[in-house]
Design a protein that fits this description.
240 residues, alpha+beta, Chloramphenicol Acetyltransferase, seven-stranded mixed β-sheet, two-stranded antiparallel ribbon, 7 helices, 9 strands, globular
Length: 240
């Protein structure tokens, strides 16, 4: 018998830590999502230069700080109106599509104990100024316990902003049940691109759509993501 075995057992026991309530909820939800949704991932690249120019000019003209998350949220909301099945839920037991009248786009916020998903109600009806202010309210509320139940329930689609991590190219996201898809956005980086037969350096951003294949097949996913890319590469359309 190893003479140090009792000491090692006590060491490992002293390292145990009771999971906090939020982390327990996250654990249950992640397992449920993994077991529920047969998920496929779709990656597309966005020419981010029009977004960068538009964001700066719009923010200066309207006296509001619109960030890239707001632009992606607005583009997603516009596309969700055109692709109602992506903005739905699916009841496998009764084989029923639950179509949502509202488009409530949420976004992931990192908090001390884990992750929190808040959502903006009627995102498609909010202009960029209102969307920016509502997003800021939710972020501030997450820092000072200022969120209410309505802020964290009723979402129909989620954006996962990974732009802080400059080296992260893509990852596999877990769908926020009972939603059917989650869109991950990544850092804007300098990348080579071909324009008029010449190689140039372009500001680019990756978008990864993780979609539930029970409802969203490859064609629908690619058409939906292509629509978002098109809106972001022509950001003036987001003000119409």
């Amino acid at each position: 018998m190893n003479p140090h075995q009792p000491e090692m057992r006590e060491l490992f026991m002293s390292m145990e830590q009771k999971a906090k309530r939020l982390r327990r909820v996250i654990a249950v939800n992640m397992v449920k999502s993994w077991q529920t949704s047969p998920k496929c991932d779709y990656l597309m690249k966005v020419n981010a230069e029009p977004m960068m120019v538009f964001r700066k000019s719009f923010s200066e003209a309207n006296g509001v700080k619109v960030d890239f998350l707001n632009l992606v949220m607005k583009a997603a909301a516009t596309a969700l109106k055109e692709f109602p099945y992506v903005n739905s839920s699916y009841d496998s037991e009764n084989h029923v599509h639950r179509m949502h009248e509202e488009v409530n786009v949420g976004f992931v916020i990192s908090v001390d104990d884990g992750l929190l998903v808040t959502n903006t109600k009627g995102t498609d009806r909010l202009d960029l100024t209102a969307l920016s202010r509502e997003t800021e309210r939710l972020i501030e509320g997450s820092k000072n316990s200022g969120l209410n139940m309505d802020d964290i329930t009723g979402g129909t689609f989620t954006i996962n902003n990974m732009g802080t991590y400059k080296r992260l190219v893509q990852h596999t996201a877990i769908i926020n049940q009972p939603e059917l898809a989650i869109l991950s956005m990544y850092a804007i980086t300098d990348e080579p691109a071909v324009r008029d037969g010449a190689v140039v350096i372009q500001k680019s951003m990756n978008l990864m759509l993780s979609a539930d294949h029970r409802v969203i097949d490859g064609k629908m996913a690619c058409d939906f993501l292509t629509r978002i890319v098109g809106l972001l590469e022509n950001p003036e359309s987001l003000t119409q």
